Amino acid sequence: MEKLNQLYEGKAKKVYKTDNDDVYWIEYKDDATAFNAQKKGTIVGKGTINNKMSAYWFLLLKEEGVPNHFIELVSDNEMLVKAVEIVKTEVIIRNIAAGSISRRLGIKEGTKLPFPILEFCLKSDELGDPVINEDHILAMGLATKEEIETMKGYAHKVNNFLKEDLIKKDIILVDFKIEFGRYHDEIILADEISPDTCRFWDANTMEKLDKDRFRRDLGGVEEAYEEVFARITGDK
What is the mean pLDDT of residues 20-28? Predict the structure, then answer.
């Protein structure tokens, strides 16, 4: 597979074309941003951890019946993926109140929710990724009713699998954000599953093991990423 010209550079990844129109080449970066890129920094080793952890989850989720864009790893911080058209809607599942839902709704952080809450956000840095509902998605032509139901179904399936797997490793899945893409008219899971996109708390101490350590200036950011990666994948 030949890596060709860069198509896109986001906050955490670069996307390149390849000599196969159905395949993209993704390069994960160590760059870190928060609050819609108002805060910027570097988390050493983040690109490698997020790349390998995403590959780990994508392989397992495929076995669980969740189709996704992952093809194979090509280096410590690079992977080949199916060339999807990203749906401009982020899907969030919340098991415990934290972050923006606590600020928006006044639910105390750490409150266990009675059931997993699914939220949609418009994928727009310019607008601050606002929360939207299914009517907004339909009215803006972002996805069809069938695509929305598919995304919701896969999101809950991802949540159930991740929660069960993580608690065995003394990690609580607080919440996560995922994205989907269209691949030959099929909706599949895309983007990444990592400490950048998930809130992981230690099940015994409630210590944060994710990007919140960077957002909130808690220190020990690299150590937290390394710890959660080692626990989840068994790799050092």
Answer: 97
Which are the contacts of 170, defined by CB distance < 8 A and separation ≥ 6? 202, 203, 204, 231
Q: Does the pLDDT value for residue 184 go beyond 70?
A: yes
Give the SS3 label for residue 127.
Answer: coil
Residue with structure tokens 């949609």?
120
CATH of 87-233, one of 3.90.25.10, 3.30.470.20, 3.40.50.970, 3.20.20.390: 3.30.470.20
| Model pLDDT, residue 85 | 97
At 25-80, the pLDDT tens digits run 999 999 888 776 667 888 999 999 999 999 999 999 999 999 999 999 999 999 99
Predicted structure pTM score:
0.95
Domain boundaries, the chain: 3-82, 87-233
E-only strand ranges, the chain: 3-9, 13-18, 23-28, 31-34, 39-42, 70-75, 78-82, 85-96, 112-122, 131-132, 171-183, 186-190, 198-202
Supply angle C-alpha 47, 51, 55, rounded to 5: 170
3-82: CATH topology? Phosphorylase Kinase; domain 1 (3.30.200)
Q: Kindly report, residue by residue over 89-146, the tens digit of the pLDDT.
A: 999 999 999 999 999 999 999 999 999 999 999 999 899 999 999 999 999 999 999 9
